[in-house]
Every structure is written in structure tokens, then in C-alpha cells.
Design a protein that fits this description.
The protein is of the alpha+beta class and 801 residues long. The chain has 5 domains: 118 residues, no CATH class; 107 residues, 2-Layer Sandwich (D-amino Acid Aminotransferase, Chain A, domain 1); 159 residues, no CATH class; 210 residues; 105 residues, Phosphohistidine domain (Glucose Oxidase, domain 1, 3-Layer(bba) Sandwich), CATH 3.50.30.10. The chain is 43% helix and 13% strand. The chain has 27 helices and 21 strands. Strand 20 and strand 21 form a beta hairpin. Helix 10 packs across helix 17 and helix 11 crosses helix 12.
Length: 801
């Protein structure tokens, strides 16, 4: 037992939590270690009163932290970090409570008489608390992995897994000048000093900072997983980063046909790959998404609606298997075609700067960054977000162009792009699936190619148009609420009145359950659905044997009821339409337009995903004839596969493709060691990568408090989710089966306000938090239970003891 500083030995030796802090204390300059006193369980059990007297003499009336310091906690080969109890804010002067707190900490340990209890004064006026891992724990990637809380004022938020905290990855060799935040730079200086003192690079560090900016060190331990790390990881990441930097320096320059001085890469704006294919998709899924949507379909659809024509511009970039949206491309595609390039240049640059300053809007750019149509709050939002960007004449030109584009979209006419898209989609339903069987699978691959071409020409092109109409409808209705013409409650009533294909599916599911419809007929219509629309390893509904293992819960009722505007609402909306120059339709027609746009967006998606799913089935049949499993196929790109129709493979087909698949497996596995943020605004962001916190999109006004259940693509549908809050990563149509099981609420990791699941939950009146982001999602899963209050916009983990 000791309270005196000890000089540093020639070679640092880790001890218990308390012993290690004591060894570091006299050599540390970047932070302060609060005064410490520790004693063994043997000393406590032999003379509690003497120990209590020493504590009182040492700390007076201070509030104390009573922490475990077990021999088994911080070993070189194994760690039991967090296994034992720590108690905070214990009043030193209350001897009975102090004794009880120490007894609780002692009881939580292993009964080894050499185990210790560490006493320190509480750090007051806490502004930041957090944890630094000096390497990525799982892969050994060379990053300072920092999680910190700067909101709660507590010292244990990150280590307890509670609350809201920020996460970032800082490359270990980064120049501190690249770090914008002075306090983050101070965290890195502390970590580097501790690596030097401890003569160990792999450290787990707990720290705090008060409002004066003074750092405090609470704990240092070795990362025991370091012995499992592959030595090639560090040089590989260094090499990859140099190539990514070179790519960014080129791609962030000005580009032909695109307005804007530079760009931003982000995972969730616009076509949102994080939601649809995930943050590290397998090659087949990523290549199909590019083939069907991001290669050019997305912007050609918008050009047909009156937006700027970008030709066949690719929207998505893949950085070491991580998909990002090129935001400059996206913002160019939202410019009305009528405006001059001078105005467009100013707007794109301003929108990019707004997103850089407000990264939390990266999944809401159409509502909070870019005006993609003229709504009832256009002037108010312009004055708030974009003052001084355009002169008076330029602003007038932009407003007129946006109004004309919106009028064209709203005008009830069968020549409207909306109705033409619906007609094209209906043609896709008639595509012939006939296939001539052969031994080498050529006809299966030929059919898959045909289906995907039709899917692009008639399906995803039509979907892109209908989806944009749905966004316009949503924006206008939201602005009607903001202007007081509708209440938020009435808007939710309207959304519940919309009957989508999902509602029809639930009715049919119930009909199968009560014997009114055969399973065969159900699968004929819905069998193509699969969680992970582009992922070949995900099972279709008609490939599962667990969909009807239990009947539809009796609590299921049709949620759709008719919606009609009141006279007051009708008059108010008509006035707003006239004021905005959008009186090509009246209030009732606007509501009908919104109903049709939202419902048909889901139906057109349903149609094109059937064609896509059928194409994947044909690819699987082709692969099976050549000894390629679903898993093997998932690691091939679509061009790799389809080119074999026109370019002969001069080798055994299985040898050729299995080699490619294995190479892709290794590549994707190593890609996880490269830590990239959600938003890349400049080269520095690949060295200081921030995982931006997302603000959830709350659906409806309902509430739910319950246990959470996380579902994955191939989770059996027989799982009991009734009355529970369901968590899924992506807002994918293939998860529609959950609505047949009466969940209490839904939470998704990724997804926007107009995503598939947002629409579904609005239709069924199911409380939901869509697109809550990595950090909140992980805390919800870890907590085991959650409180969701959509009206008050609360998503609060409730930690299960």
C-alpha cells in the first residue's frame, strides 16, 4: 500500500490498474492522474477501520471514485475490463456509505486477497470523457480509435456503453496539423506520450477533460488482442491510404459537365448505398447497384423531369469496397435545366459548403440542404440557409425555374413523367421468363442478362422518376404543416390512409393463415422478396420454409382508412398553392397526387425487385452448373459474369471464377481494416475519419418501450418479435414479413425519411426511428431494451441489468 510517487524504472512494468497509474504518474505531462490510494483485500478484511481512517485523512470531504484493481483485470494475455464494479460520487465523509461502497466493489472481485481497491477523488466540472484505443482492436489497424462524450458531464458514459458519444478514427502517423479540433489533438498527444512511457504501442486509455481544458488520466491497460493481429495490416493500411489520397486529389478537382469547385463523398445522401447495399457490400451486389441505378439511370430519369442533364454520369464511387455517393454529382442533378451555369455553379458550391458545415444532414439533403422543388416554405428556407448567394435577378431566375419544374411535375396529365413511368413499369411485369435448359447454363446467364437490361430500362428508370415525385409530394406536404395548413397529426393520418403493396401483402398473408389463399398463390406474387435486394446469398421468401410457421397475430387489423381534407384545410392549402404559383391543381388533387406517388413508389420498387430477384436466381442456376455456390457468386462482379457471354474464358470455368472469388474475399476482408468516415470532404478526412452521428427520422407520433430484437437477412421468420422493438440495419423491402408478426416498433441503422421502411411504418402507424446511425444503433443493440417516443423525438437505450 502506498501513496507516494515512484520513479520510473528503466523498463516499464504493467501492474494492476492502481499500480500502473502510480508508475506513470510522475512521468506524465499531457494529463494529470488524480491523487490515488489503494489497498489490498487482505488489508481491508484485516482492518477496515484503519483503511477508512486513511481514506478520510487523505481525501477529507471530497466525493470519491471507488474502483476495482484486480490482478486479473489488466493482464498481458487476458483482460477482464469492465467485469468488476466501480462506484462513483461516494461521499468520503459518510463513513457508512463509504464502507458499503468498498464492500460492494470487494464482493464483485475474485476473493483473491492480493486484489486491490483504488480510491481517487472525483474529477469535477467534467466536459469530456472518453476512451482511446491506440489500434483498432479487431484488426490491429493503425488508428487511434477515439470514443468520447461531451454532453453528459459524466466520466463513465463511454465505458458503460450508455448515452450519446462521438467516434472517430485518427491514423497513427497523422500530422497533428491535420486535426481541426484542438481537444482531439490533445487526446492524441496524451496517447503518444503514454505509448512512450509504457514502452507499448497497443494501449486502452480512459480519460477525462474539465471545462478548463485540463486532461485527466483514469486508466491505462494493454490491448490483449494485440497478439492476434497480423503484422501485414499496418503496412497494408499505409499503402492503401496513399492510393486513396492520390485518388481523392484527382477526383475532387473540377470535372467536365459538372458544376462545383470540388465535391464531397458520403454514404447516405441521395441514393444512399449504406441503406440499400450496406457500407461494405460484396462485389456482385455493388456492381448490380451500379449497373441498375448509379451508372446513369438515376440522372437520366431526373433529366426527363426537367432537371439538369448529366448524360451517363456515375453517382457512386467505391473506395476499397466502401460505397460513397459523389455529392457534387447529386447536387448537379437537382438543378433545374433552365437556369444558367453561372447560377448553378454558385448553388452547387453553396450547397456543398452547407453540408460540410452541417454533416448531420447527410441523410436529409433533399429536405435540409437542397431545394429540389418549390414548396410553401421556399422563401423562408432560402433566407435562412442561403442569404447572399445569388443577386436579386439570379434568385428570381432560380425561383421561376424551380416553380416551372414543380408545376410540370404536379400538372395532372397522362403525359406527365409520373404516369409515363407507371406505364413503363407495367410493361416490366410482362417480361417473359422462359428459358431453354442446357447443360452449360448459357441460357440461364443469357436470361439473367436480358432481365437485368429490362429491369434497368423499364424498372429502375421508372422507379427513379416515381421516387422523385414522392419526394416532391412529401416536401410540399411537410411545408404545408410548417405553414399551419395541416397539423402533423393530420399528416400522419393521411400517411396511414395510403395503401401500399405492403398492406396488400399483409392482407394476403392473413388470408393464407386463415385458409383463404394458398401458399402457392402467395409465393407466386411475393416469393421474390428477399432481405438484401441485391444480395444473392439472401434467401427469397419462396426459398424459406419458415414464413408460415405461425398464423398472423389476431391483433393485426387493416390500418388504412379514408382521408379527406376538412374545409378549413382545403382552403388553407389552396391559398398556399396560389401563393406559390403551383395552382395547376387544387388541394384535393395535391393530396391525391401525394397518395399515388407514395403508394406507386413502393409498387414500382416491388415490380423491379421481382425482375432483379429472378435474374439473381438465373445467375445462381448458371453458377450451380459450374460448381459455384451462392457465396462464390457474391464475390464476383456482374461484368465478370456477363462478359463470359461475349468473351470466351480460356480455362475451366470453375477454376477461372473460383480464383476471382477467392481474390475478392481476401480483398474485402482486408478492406475492413481501412477506417473511413461517413463523409469525406477533403484528403484529411481519410486520416481523421469521423463517424457522424445521424439524427433519426422519427415516423408518426407513437411510443414504445420494450426489449429489442436484431434481425439479419436470413434470420428465421419464425422468431417471436410480437410486442418487441425490431432492429434491422437497412430499410429493405425483403423485411416486410416483420409486419405480419406485430412488432411494437422498428429501428433501422440506415435509411432516410422517405425510405421504404419509413413509408411502411407510416402506413401501419408503427412507431419507428429510421436511420439512427452507427453509434445509436449499436448502443440500442447493446442495451437490450429501448424507449422510443416519436412525438418527442426520443430514442433512449434502457440498459438491462
Amino acid at each position: 500500500m502506498s501513496t507516494n510517487n515512484q520513479s520510473r524504472t528503466k523498463s516499464f512494468v504493467f501492474g494492476t490498474k492502481a499500480e500502473t497509474l502510480l508508475s506513470i504518474k510522475s512521468n506524465l505531462t499531457e494529463a494529470t492522474i488524480p491523487h490515488l490510494y489503494f489497498f489490498s483485500l487482505k488489508e481491508w478484511n484485516e482492518n477496515k477501520e484503519a483503511v477508512l481512517n486513511t481514506i478520510h485523512t487523505t481525501f477529507g470531504d471530497n466525493l470519491l471514485a471507488i474502483r476495482s484493481s484486480s490482478l486479473t483485470e489488466d493482464g498481458s494475455l487476458h483482460s477482464m475490463a469492465g467485469a468488476f464494479l466501480s462506484l462513483l460520487n461516494i461521499q468520503c465523509s459518510d463513513r457508512a456509505k463509504l464502507r458499503d461502497a468498498i464492500d460492494q466493489v470487494v464482493t464483485s472481485m475474485t476473493d483473491n486477497p492480493r486484489d486491490q481497491v483504488l480510491i481517487q477523488p472525483m474529477v469535477t466540472d467534467v466536459d469530456v470523457s472518453g476512451v482511446i484505443m491506440t489500434f483498432d482492436m479487431v484488426h490491429g489497424a493503425p488508428y487511434y480509435c477515439i470514443d468520447f462524450d461531451d454532453e453528459s458531464g459524466r466520466t463513465d458514459v463511454v465505458t458503460s456503453g450508455q448515452g450519446v458519444h462521438k467516434s472517430l478514427f485518427v491514423y497513427r502517423d497523422v500530422d497533428l496539423e491535420m486535426i481541426k479540433s484542438p481537444r482531439v489533438a490533445s487526446f492524441i498527444r496524451l496517447a503518444r506520450e503514454l505509448e512512450n512511457i509504457c514502452e507499448c504501442a497497443a494501449l486502452d486509455i480512459e480519460f477525462g477533460m474539465n471545462r478548463a481544458g485540463q486532461l485527466f488520466l483514469f486508466q491505462v491497460r494493454r490491448i490483449t488482442l494485440a497478439r492476434n493481429w497480423h503484422p501485414v495490416t499496418v503496412p497494408r493500411v499505409r499503402r492503401q491510404l496513399s492510393h486513396v489520397e492520390e485518388f481523392l486529389r484527382k477526383s475532387f478537382k473540377r470535372r467536365q459537365r459538372l458544376l462545383g469547385d470540388n465535391t464531397i463523398y458520403a454514404i447516405m445522401p441521395d441514393w444512399n448505398p449504406a441503406e440499400i447495399i450496406g457500407t461494405a457490400p460484396r462485389p456482385l451486389a455493388a456492381s448490380l447497384y451500379r449497373q441498375l441505378i448509379t451508372k446513369g439511370t438515376w440522372c437520366q430519369a431526373r433529366a426527363s423531369m426537367g432537371y439538369r442533364d448529366l448524360g451517363e454520369t456515375d453517382l457512386m464511387v467505391l473506395i476499397n469496397h466502401h460505397p460513397y455517393i459523389d455529392v457534387r454529382c447529386s447536387f448537379n442533378s437537382f438543378l433545374p435545366a433552365q437556369i444558367s451555369e453561372v447560377i448553378g455553379e454558385k448553388l452547387v458550391n453553396a450547397w456543398l459548403e452547407r453540408l460540410k458545415s452541417k454533416p448531420e444532414f447527410h441523410d436529409k439533403v433533399e429536405f435540409d440542404v437542397v431545394p429540389t422543388c418549390l414548396d410553401f416554405c421556399f422563401q423562408e428556407d432560402w433566407d435562412d440557409r442561403s442569404p447572399g448567394i445569388l443577386n436579386q435577378e439570379e434568385f428570381k431566375e432560380f425561383r421561376i425555374a424551380l416553380r416551372n419544374l414543380t408545376r410540370e411535375c404536379l400538372t395532372p396529365s397522362h403525359n406527365n413523367t409520373f404516369y409515363r413511368a407507371l406505364e413503363a413499369s407495367s410493361q416490366l411485369e410482362k417480361v417473359n421468363l422462359s428459358c431453354i435448359e442446357d447443360k452449360d447454363g448459357y441460357s440461364h446467364l443469357d436470361l439473367a442478362c436480358h432481365l437485368l437490361n429490362q429491369c434497368r430500362e423499364l424498372g429502375t428508370f421508372s422507379f427513379a422518376i416515381v421516387a422523385r415525385h414522392a419526394f416532391i409530394a412529401e416536401a410540399i406536404l411537410r411545408s404545408a404543416v410548417r405553414r399551419g395548413a395541416l397539423s402533423e397529426g393530420r399528416l400522419n393520418e393521411f400517411k396511414r390512409s395510403i395503401k401500399t403493396i405492403s398492406g396488400t401483402m399483409l392482407e394476403d398473408f392473413a388470408s393464407v393463415s386463415n385458409g383463404g389463399l394458398s401458399k402457392k398463390d402467395f409465393y407466386k406474387k411475393y416469393g421474390h422478396l428477399r432481405p438484401g435486394t441485391y444480395e444473392i446469398t439472401s434467401l427469397r421468401y419462396d426459398e424459406r420454409d419458415d414464413l408460415f410457421t405461425e398464423a398472423m397475430p389476431e391483433t393485426f387489423t387493416e390500418s388504412n382508412s379514408s382521408f379527406e381534407l376538412t374545409d378549413t384545410e382545403r382552403c388553407a392549402i389552396d391559398r398556399l398553392l396560389t401563393e406559390a404559383g403551383l395552382n395547376v391543381l387544387d388541394a384535393d388533387q395535391l393530396v391525391n397526387y401525394a397518395n399515388q406517388a407514395i403508394a406507386n413508389r413502393e409498387y414500382v420498387k416491388f415490380v423491379f425487385t421481382k425482375t432483379l430477384s429472378d435474374a439473381l436466381s438465373e445467375v445462381m442456376r448458371w453458377g450451380g452448373l459450374h460448381g459455384l455456390s451462392r457465396d462464390d457468386l457474391s464475390y464476383l462482379t456482374w461484368p465478370d459474369i456477363s462478359d463470359s457471354l461475349f468473351v470466351p474464358i480460356i480455362d475451366d470455368i470453375d477454376r477461372h471464377y473460383l480464383a476471382k472469388a477467392e481474390e475478392a474475399r481476401i480483398s474485402l476482408s482486408s478492406a475492413h481494416a481501412l477506417k473511413l468516415g461517413h463523409i469525406i470532404t477533403a484528403v484529411r478526412d481519410i486520416y481523421v475519419a469521423t463517424l457522424n452521428r445521424s439524427v433519426p427520422n422519427f415516423v408518426g407520433l407513437g411510443t414504445a418501450t420494450s426489449k429489442v430484437i436484431e434481425l439479419e437477412a436470413n434470420t428465421p421468420t419464425s422468431i417471436n418479435i410480437k410486442g418487441h422493438i425490431v432492429c434491422i440495419e437497412n430499410a429493405d423491402p425483403g423485411f416486410d414479413w416483420i409486419f405480419t408478426k406485430s412488432p411494437a416498433a422498428l429501428i433501422t441503422r440506415f435509411g432516410g425519411a422517405n425510405s421504404h421502411m419509413a413509408v411502411r411504418c407510416a402506413e401501419f402507424g408503427l412507431p419507428a426511428a429510421i436511420g439512427c446511425g452507427d453509434q445509436i444503433y449499436q448502443r440500442v443493440i447493446q442495451a437490450g431494451s429501448v424507449e422510443l417516443n416519436c412525438a418527442e423525438k426520443i430514442l433512449r437505450p434502457l440498459y438491462v441489468k
